[in-house]
Amino acid sequence: MSSIRAEAPPLTQESVRNRTKNAIHSAFLCNEPTLVGALPGSGKSFASVQVAKETGQPTTFLTERRTLYDQLGEWADDAGLTWRQIPTFHHDCPTASGDHDTEGEDWKSNIRSLYSRGLSGGVLHSQARHHFGKQLPCQSNGKCPYTAALEYDPEDYDVLIGNFRHLYSDKPTRGRTVVIDELAVDSLAEEYDADQVATGVSEFLKTTPEIPFDNYSDLIESNDRKLREQALSWFNENPEWHFQKSTLVRQGVGHASGALMTYALLVRENLGNGVESALLPRNVRCCRERETGKLLVFRRPASVQRIGEECEDGEPAGPLAVVALDGTPVVEQWKLLLGPDMQFDQVLSDEEQATFVEETLNIRVIQTNENPKPYSSGEYVTPPSDLALVEAIRDESAHPPVLISSKKAIRAYRERGLDELIPPEDTAHFGNLRGLNTFASRRTAVILGSPHRGDDYIKRWGAFAGETIEPEGRGADRDYGEFGNAVLAGHREFEVLQTILRLGRDGEGATVFVHTCALPEWINATVALPEIRPLAAGMEEVVRAIEQLGSDEWRTAEISEAVEISSRQVRDHLNKLADWGYIDRHGTGRGRRWSDIRIHETGRFGHVQFPETNG
Fold this sequence. Notes:
It is a single chain. The protein is of the alpha/beta class. 35% of the residues lie in helices and 16% in strands. The protein contains 23 helices and 23 strands. Helix 1 (13-28) crosses helix 2, helix 10 (194-206) packs across helix 13 (258-267) and helix 19 (481-491) runs parallel beside helix 20 (493-500).
């Protein structure tokens, strides 16, 4: 689909929502998977329910947060559509939820441990005696609520609501339009640690003597091409190996995907950058980290490869359509999930998006730093200057600000006194606001730093795509190549943008201070780089002592008596405060005296001076 459109009406919120709805309507009728890109605030989710009503197509909505289930249900009720939530193992099984845990039996931990070895919720219930020696506690009075709920008939409902994993199930997707709402595509990558891989492969090899390797180590260390060819011949002659097999998990050891793991190790290709890549049949892509032995698996759902197909009896073999909704899409990642024939419809051009944010949503973005400031690891967080900035913005703003940063950054700020500035309920971390309206009516926000998952994350996605990622440069100039840069933008610039657009969603707008340069190129941001003078611990003591002294003039010794640091440190801090223009000095040597100029402007955490800006 083309993103080039005829002359559009003025960018009111209503016009943008109408354009979004039209794009979704077209996607409902498309024979190829379609990705609709529309910024948060464009009304994607609500419009999808309306289109489901208008087209009469039975629709399955897949979303990440259970808090959105009820919202979708309310919209379905308003549209006169019948709906049902698809049951999930972790939420609907009392045993998996921990309801039956006792001091002597940790059922939740035990059942989830086997679940992590590839056994489905259904298998864990039907084979409970085999794995646990008895029925699950949730089966003591008949069927578990989870397995009972699985017996629903999709044809009884206009709308089904579930999570992204249901994309891999036939029952909720066959003969229906599937709407994928704001999926973080990377959340579908399965991750197996070295122990899971080693035991999974070894247990599979024990049951398959035709393959000429005794165990994981034997396979991983072998360079014998003939043995590998012999092993691959077995896989070619036994196509059913693709399916997960619960019999490969015995006494809590092994993995249902042991055959898949083995095949991936046989065909893996060393990319030379610390990771290996493997492309398996049925569009399964694998990445192995050479140092850790970790294996990651990314599967293209079979359902998206059967859109519009029919079985011999004329019944649908797959979905009627697949519609993906994303406010900040990384097209390259979506194509790995939905296939190279995926259609992409970007509702607004870059120029229109800038106008929509600044004028339609009335969101003003003020950029306060010229560096990416990657804060996810916590290593590069700068609490003294960051807190000084937050304090200055709080003191100058008409509305109390909220703060968004990484988890580790917020933890570091709390250790330095963040709660004195912003209460815990007014803080959030990156990725925790997507799809939510927690701060919809807040007028001021501070975003400190940007998320960055590290080079290894980008290399993994390169491996899924069969590309070698070799980063070059540092900081804002670090280059991962075309594909890698797109992946980086997806979890850095786009995540910052998603955060910005969670503010002021009630139509009243917001001012967002962004302490990073990690912004999409198209966004109109006012660059206002402040001079930040944080107070070091010793300097803070000196400032408080001056304030408590309350004199127009004082000597160094008077301050030294009121603090715990040395006299030399006191002199150094006083001289620095004088150099910064907060106090004045008179005389020399032992006769030196100090007087106040504007010591009150230092604040609790430091002093911040913004440049003059136009608007």
